[in-house]
User: What shape does this take?
Amino acid sequence: MEKVVKSESEWRVQLSPEEFRVLRQAGTEPAYTGEYVDTKTEGVYSCRACGAELFRSGTKFESHCGWPSFFEPSESDAVVLIEDHSLGMSRVEVRCARCDSHLGHVFHGEGYATPTDDRYCINSVSLRLVPADS
Assistant: This one.
């Protein structure tokens, strides 16, 4: 996979202010406000910054956490996981492997009835859904 490397000023031109805040500054959109929280459309979720395929709709599930949740990425190398000890918490950050944009966090062992017991809690603003019928 060819990496996408841009300066912060190039990202600012490409992304909206909210997209930049979340994708490039590791922000979080407010719970239950993202466009994909309740989406059931079949398709592929790609990185809003670089277009890399990240998740497929078949792995999306209802977690009732306020953000779109997936139990695994479309390919194991589509995302990079980084230990995150910010805000006094111990979490694992999820980043796009192609452009290093912040996507959200992954949590394990919460008891969801999914094949992996992982919850990739992803900001809608970090994603772009490409419907299967398009």
